[in-house]
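Agenda item 2: DQA complex prediction
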Amino acid sequence: MSTDRSAAAAPLPILLLNGPNLNMLGTRQPEVYGSLTLDDVVALVERTAAEAGFGVQALQTNHEGVMLDAIHAARGAISGIVINPGAWTHTSVALHDALVIPEVPIVEVHISNVHARESFRRHSYVSPIAAGVIAGFGVQGYEYAVRRLVTLIS
Ligand code: DQA
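Presented output:
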């Protein structure tokens, strides 16, 4: 029987959340969101997290309750959250309230520069509880978000 106590336990995974319509990345307004797909985003996040020794749990949903349930279930089971809340960014007090529950660092990502678009995109219900916000760097913003999250966790 192994008695090696020196091996560090694997860290809890990073939760990657993508909100409504982000399943359509690559097809949806490519002039705004680019041509990469959600699968590309997940692969990028997995690769970046793996470099730092973290696994990834990924969810995209178009149903707000599904996202809220997933956030509740993640309490105690994740190290931190990278979230692109999509349009719920600008509308959802419920998402704001749920994201506080796991008590882990959160990085908010937007593919587009929400501040250079319609005025309704300038308000975020998530930003007040996020450690930081990355917007306007395309899909690469997810990579920056993971790197920052890892720094915050470590
Ligand atoms: C978005 C910006 C939101 O305003 C929009 O509703 C989205 C995507 C982005 O990634 O740029 O669905 O979060």
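Discussion summary: Helices lie at 30-33, 38-51, 64-74, 93-100, 140-153.
Owner for follow-up: CH.
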